[in-house]
Amino acid sequence: xxxxxxxxxxxxxxxxxxxxxxxxxxxxxxxxxxxxxxxxxxxxxxxxxxxxxxxxxxxxxxxxxxxxxxxxxxxxxxxxxxxxxxxxxxxxxxxxxxxxxxxxxxxxxxxxxxxxxxxxxxxxxxxxxxxxxxxxxxxxxxxxxxxxxxxxxxxxxxxxxxxxxxxxxxxxxxxxxxxxxxxxxxxxxxxxxxxxxxxxxxxxxxxxxxxxxxxxxxxxxxxxxxxxxxxxxxxxxxxxxxxxxxxxxxxxxxxxxxxxxxxxxxxxxxxxxxxxxxxxxxxxxxxxxxxxxxxxxxxxxxxxxxxxxxxxxxxxxxxxxxxxxxxxxxxxxxxxxxxxxxxxxxxxxxxxxxxxxxxxxxxxxxxxxxxxxxxxxxxxxxxxxxxxxxxxxxxxxxxxxxxxxxx
Length: 407
Known about the structure:
CATH class of the largest domain: Alpha Beta
Largest sheet: 7 strands, mixed
CATH topology of the largest domain: FAD/NAD(P)-binding domain
Number of domains: 2
CATH architecture of the largest domain: 3-Layer(bba) Sandwich
Strand content: 15-25%
Shape: globular
Helix content: 10-25%
Structural class: alpha/beta
Number of helices: 8
Distance between the termini: 26 Å
Mean pLDDT: 96
């Protein structure tokens, strides 16, 4: 049985950042990554035209801050993958690919952990869980009732319009992925039905700056979980935005104007029909309000600091409110041959054989540090702040974990 001081589970941005710091300190460790290549989530779970939604200057992994000539641009998928490949190579990080971790259990004497993997059993003094918050694609159970001839894809398996059979497409979910995929598909000439939810909207640019820059300056991403109305708010969708074609706003009302059929929350499916809640207008109202609230927060910040930023009034589109309220679709009659489930992902930390999660299944930690000596989590949504899972903020939590490991 191989003994290693620290085992990192997951070779994404959080796991690699942890490895970077340990490598710089000369501490023995290994990264177990189930995929066979770097940047699995970016390489394998994104569509062909995907770009970063946040500006390039937000790439701030330790030892590899963005230093290109387009800080306000949005890296395309292939350049994101290349960034992670170069990161591992440059710092010679000890990543073992094609190694799935099956179980993490505390040793009987409590002085470390036994880690079972597809490549053998290991012992470690420290284990860092860096698998992120997106392990299981969310697809409702009633999807099994949909006729077999209808192609069903999770958004992580969508690549491009040519991948799909002819006909209309039902996209379920109006978060970042659902909106970007729906836009690409209707711009390719497809008839699109879009089942909406509560995802907020933000303008791509506001008062002469990328909205992300304003949000960073206002402290929006420094918000801690205890400031949320409920802890379940940690799992809300990110604002509707796109970095494609130089970056642009996404707006459901514009979608309606362009011919997309907007629907409420999906509710059920049976006998070749899909049912929806009659809550489209409520969804639109919540989305519209979110944009107004974000802009009002930015306005207040500008005024308080007396910044010289030109006034701006966003156009208020209303097209979606005129849409027909559809509560049932007959897939055959609507010529829908594809359903794309863009409802996000669920997390799953069952590989840890200790009671380390709350009633929602989310890790219970103090900024990634569990009650069990040597067991840590990093890279999860809202682990300590709103930015905990972002390229911009993951390193702050990692540095805290490193301090605990080396203390």
